[in-house]
Design brief:
Radius of gyration: 19 Å
Strand content: 5-15%
Helix content: 25-40%
Largest sheet: 2 strands, antiparallel
Low-confidence stretches: 104-125
Order of helices and strands: EEHHH
Number of strands: 2
Oligomer: single chain
Length: about 120
């Protein structure tokens, strides 16, 4: 007899959500593809957050295309929202900046502009 999984109330419907950052395929300009499939609500919120971030970059003087500003906004989000802020059932909070400083593993920050195209002598990119 098959047991019911309380975390998957619809076992016949596969969960296709995923996010992949293709760091193994870096372009000549230093960019990588990001692909994924999200719940509709999460996708709508992400789209709104990217639009807001792109608008803030434009207001700050960015002359990049909307797509480039959205990509930059996603990168900014990745550097500022490093952990979900929730309390677990045991009463301890999710990792914070203080707990990360105390030894939790955190990706190192990137140099500002490190993701931008580098101009080489003679105008080549």
């Amino acid at each position: 007899m098959e047991r019911e999984d309380p975390e998957n109330p619809h076992p016949d419907v596969p969960d296709t959500r995923h996010v992949q950052v293709h760091t193994d395929q870096v372009s000549f300009t230093g960019t990588v593809a990001v692909t994924g499939e999200l719940d509709l609500a999460d996708a709508l919120h992400l789209d709104q957050a990217l639009a807001a971030g792109a608008e803030q970059l434009k207001l700050a003087g960015s002359t990049e295309s909307l797509d480039a500003r959205r990509a930059t906004a996603l990168g900014e989000m990745s550097r500022t929202q490093l952990a979900l802020s929730y309390d677990d059932p045991t009463g301890s909070a999710a990792p914070t900046a203080a707990s990360r400083a105390a030894g939790d593993v955190v990706p190192p920050p990137l140099r500002a502009g490190a993701h931008r195209r580098r101009r080489w002598p003679g105008g080549a990119v």
